Amino acid sequence: MSAAAPVAASFTVLIPARMASSRLPDKPLADIAGAPMVVHVARRALQSAATRVVVAADDARIVEACRAHGIDAILTRADHPSGSDRLAEACERLGLSGDDIVVNVQGDEPLIDPALIDAVARILGERGDASMGTAAHAIDSVEEFANPNVVKVVLDAKGLAHYFSRSPIPFARDFAPGSAWWKDEKNLPEVARGSAPLRHIGIYSYRAGFLREFPRLAPAPTEVLEALEQLRALWHGHRIAVHVSAHAPGPGSTHPPISSVCAHCWVERGLTGPPSVFARACAHPRLSRSIPSV
Q: What range does the domain containing 22 cover?
């Protein structure tokens, strides 16, 4: 994926941020190298081709922290049942029209690749038959393929999502269970050669009109069973365009441990000394105290 690739249409990045988190309370404000986590996310998004980057927060403290660092933020209702509902309100508050493209960047991805943001915006801009866009990359290992925490996606002939699953799909019936069947070019049917299974990357683009409609759609049986919200769109007949990246996202670019983010910031700023010291400070289980600015 090339950062220099043209983006088909202007787009807005929305970053939903909520204070409640069972794993890490007050996660959006977790201090990393002197700035809250959500600010790092927004700064990465600002390196994309987005015309605007806005944090959609459920707490005034997030809004205040963002604005203190020069990041655009709006306060949304605290009682939204899902991130999609929060994004829908943000679309209304920002006055986005139905055809405007919105990219949803999660607020806990401080190393998100700006080129990936551009790619999911571009794929939706190019596909008038799709309501959503997302990304995927080829799976390399059997362990990834079998892991239910790794969501797989199968595409149709037009490059649109056919199905998402936590199960290993597509299932190669004529190959030994647990084998990397996609690497066995000699025995693969000719039509299946070069078609490695795909790992879904959890970033989405939407048309704003669909994003406002989505929370009102009834949950799909497949969505509930797989615990994958994007299946609701497919169930109701909407199409999802998929950008297939030539490689996996960089280390730690999606849901990284805070310790690795801190180490990354340490090295990125060209600081001397071992980053492990700074990383250990950031790895505190509650992050109730501020990590020293560097």
A: 11-135+201-255
